[in-house]
Amino acid sequence: MAGLADLGRFSEPALLILISLADGTKHGYAMQDDIAALTDERPGPGTLYGAIRRLEEHGFIQQLPAADRRKPYALTDKGRDMLQVELRRIRAMADTGLRRLATA
Amino acid sequence: MNRVRRTVVGWYPKDVRDRYGAEIEDLLESSKHPGRDLANVAWHALTERRPVPSGRHLVRALGLLTAPIWFAVAAYFGYMAPGLVVGMLQQYGGYTDLNDTRWLAPSVLAVAGVVAGVGRRHRIVSPGAVVPVALTAGLLLTPFIPFVNLFVGVRAGTPETCAAATWGAALIVVARLGRSSAPVLVGGGILVNELALTVYGLAAHGAAPLAQWPDAMAGTVTPLTARLAILPAVLTIGTAYALGVVHGAQARTGASAQVAPPEPGDPATDQHHRDHREPDQRRGAELAPGQLGRVRER
Question: What is the pTM of this model?
Fold first, then answer.
């Protein structure tokens, strides 16, 4: 399975989008709010939709039909699996780093 | 501000703009930091990757850029054929008062008709901009091509031929399009012709002959008409080609916009639309309401 590293400069905003969508569907504006609350930094629209586009191309998220121009997005199975793999990798990396700091 | 937002979003490649443009504009509209977000969108719009042109696209672009050279060759042979007939009539028929340059007009118009038909079938991105630019560039290069350069000595046509053919093509386009864009198209075609003619004259022969207008055209100062030679014919044919390309593109756009929506349940149209949807649209359409967010990857 291709990882988020394949998304290049969009890998970090892509991870944040996957995390934002983990608890349900959201449109772009709600994702911006959620990511701002998570990181204290609101992604610009260009950054957000650059990452959304690549996540869609890789089949990690799915655009859903909408009545107005704010279209909601949802995780796909593949995206959910990818998010779990990425978060476990980050947790393992953080555990290792913290353990080494504690023993230093 | 709306116009600025729309302009910046318009810098995205068409496929991105079509899919996300409205959402990005919506975020810009409700942004608390409009300047920063506008800069962010502008940067990503300009750096968004564009589709890599295929070999077929490159061949087509090369064909377009060299088209004026082939037009010059076609115009030359179009001139030669009636010229032979006229020469025989003069030599063996005693019609010594025949002016062979007048026979060029029908041959140029015939070639123009053929290339307009060819151009109409071409599919070129932004033909209204690409074709005139490419033709102008090609026309400026044409005098420097050794073989084609030989034709410069031929008295091949008159500015009147060019003007008549351009207006003829323009009238056809106006009649067939019946749209407000037609005058722009026609005016642009004439302007490109005039610019190409002027730049050609200045580049090839310097500003001095043009400054002594109209003596330069009459040949008392510099035989400019003889030196311009086949250029009016090539411009005529090039204009016909350009109008053909643009008209073909507009006709295709109009035809696709007029396609009626498919009847639900019609197996043929349903299959057609299944085959032409985006992959993500296919996935979305096959979702049951309770399965959102749990799409099985194919």
Answer: 0.44
